[in-house]
Design goal:
- The chain is an alpha+beta fold.
- It has one domain: Aminopeptidase.
- About 30% of the residues lie in helices and about 35% in strands.
- It contains five helices and seven strands, in the order βαααβββαβαββ.
- The chain has a seven-stranded mixed sheet, with helices on both faces.
- Strand 6 and strand 7 form a beta hairpin.
- Helix 1 packs across helix 3.
C-alpha cells in the first residue's frame, strides 16, 4: 500500500458540495449492482450536509480525492460518510481519513467512534475491522443488512 505524501486535508466549504457529490457518486457506484439500488450516500443532499456537518477533505494536487463527514454526539463521534475517489483507492487514503476522525474525536473529548455500513460492502467492513472497529449489531434494512460498528480510542 502506497500512501501519497502529497495528501493534505482541509475543511469543506459550501462551494465543495458539487465535488463532494461527484466523488460520493463515483465511489459508491460499484455497489449499485451488488445491492440493486443506490446506496443512501448517493441520495444525500450535499449542499445541506456541508452546511450542517463538518467534512474533512483529502486533497492531492488541488483535487479532492477523499472525504470524511462526521457528527459529534455527547458520547461519541459519528462517521456519517467516508469515501475515496475510485482512481485514488488502495493507497491508504481511507485509513488516513479514519485516523483524522480519531484525532477529531480525541480533540472533542470523545473516546468512541461509530459508523454504519451495508453488510454487502464486504471490503468496507474488512477495512473497518483492520482499523480496529468491531461490530455492535446487524439489522435488516431494505432487503439487506446494516452493520453498526464502533471503535474505542484512548483519550
Amino acid at each position: 500500500m502506497t500512501i501519497t505524501p502529497s495528501i493534505r486535508f482541509r475543511p469543506a466549504e459550501a462551494a465543495d458540495a458539487v465535488a463532494i457529490r461527484e466523488i460520493v457518486h463515483a465511489a459508491y457506484a460499484k455497489w449499485v449492482p451488488v445491492i440493486g439500488r443506490e446506496p443512501l450516500p448517493m441520495r444525500a443532499d450535499y449542499d445541506e450536509a456541508v452546511a450542517e456537518h463538518p467534512f474533512d477533505l483529502a486533497i492531492e494536487d488541488k483535487r479532492i480525492v477523499g472525504l470524511i463527514e462526521t457528527v459529534a454526539h455527547d458520547d461519541h463521534l459519528w462517521i456519517e460518510n467516508v469515501c475515496v475517489a475510485p482512481d485514488a483507492q488502495g493507497r491508504g487514503i481511507g485509513r488516513l481519513l479514519l485516523e483524522r476522525a480519531e484525532a477529531k474525536a480525541r480533540e472533542a473529548g470523545r473516546n468512541e467512534l461509530r459508523l454504519l455500513t451495508n453488510g454487502a460492502f464486504e471490503a468496507n467492513v474488512s477495512l473497518y475491522k483492520r482499523q480496529g472497529y468491531t461490530v455492535d449489531r446487524e439489522e435488516p434494512f431494505m432487503n439487506g443488512t446494516t452493520v453498526y460498528m464502533n471503535k474505542r480510542i484512548a483519550g
